[in-house]
């Protein structure tokens, strides 16, 4: 029992709550506003629907905040996870997310109990940077069907699917209304922060949220006929039975391992970045990698059972949480409560959001993830690091995300060993 006690919540997690809850509340609402369009967009991109994205952001975000090992981590549906889930859902149907999410969550939880967090945490930085760049490119490519308001034409790999989809959209006649909404969303997303800085606007509204609001108003005012999120189910949380839905043993095991490894790696990376952003250096306040895996596993298990998807720690939302002044894990809890309130009281408004605007948000998010300025600096570092970065990104885009991490890590240590000789 003493062994498992380190994985459970304690009063020490909330010792600053009395003095910090107001700052945590403000940070939670801020990150909740950022998380709302992303949750909708990732749910739709995966093929599970907007409701699934919201369930994941709310329930997984809450459980990971309570049971996870980071005081700043914000969890939910992420672009990296969609990279793994999209081909699975396309091939086997959305129902397979129930057993896959539950079993992958269980495996992630067991990795935490077996204290594998410290091992996973040793993935080299050039590999992680290449991994992030590859994911950013794949997320952007995945938006082709939504951005062009056209059916996806499967080609196996993401690049081929995007190419086929764009060609199909051109052959059938481009939907210029949808494309213009994507461009409007991107324009607002990138222009608004510059205006805030230039005119020193004190009231800060997240750019993605503002872009969604303005794009939705334009579509409504001009009565533009493009796809929208649509009505959310009255009960977005619903208990599901665990069935395999035709999955064979090989498909089941390989998918579960891929999802669990991704959830583990991305969550630990995000938690590590969070400590750096928050300037945490003492061991007492640093994130606990094994507890983080335990919490993320628990979050994915329960999320998948009630209509959600596997979840991970989200670097972008976590960084927003810290910049907004979060002091403790209460901020991530408030973020989940805020999203639940939005679903309960603003569902009709959510249903009228154009999906093209969500595609624009994700394309903009992928650009931020790729971070061209930071990428240029990284490519000017040692030849070993820049080569590994490019190699990892290429494998992620053209082969597979997990293979990108595995081959990138193996090549890094091989080249480093050869260099010593």
UniProtKB/TrEMBL annotation:
* SLC26A/SulP transporter domain mapped to chain residues: 22-392
Where in or outside the cell it occurs: the entry states: Membrane
Q: Which GO terms describe its biological process?
A: transmembrane transport
Give the record's keywords alphabetically: Membrane, Transmembrane, Transmembrane helix
Q: Which GO terms describe its cellular component?
A: membrane
Q: Which regions span the lipid bilayer?
A: 25-44, 50-67, 96-114, 126-144, 173-192, 204-224, 244-263, 330-350, 388-415
Bilayer disposition of the protein: Multi-pass membrane protein
Name the InterPro entries on file.
Answer: SLC26A/SulP_dom, SLC26A/SulP_fam
Protein name, UniProt field: Unannotated protein
Whose protein is this, by species? Answer: freshwater metagenome
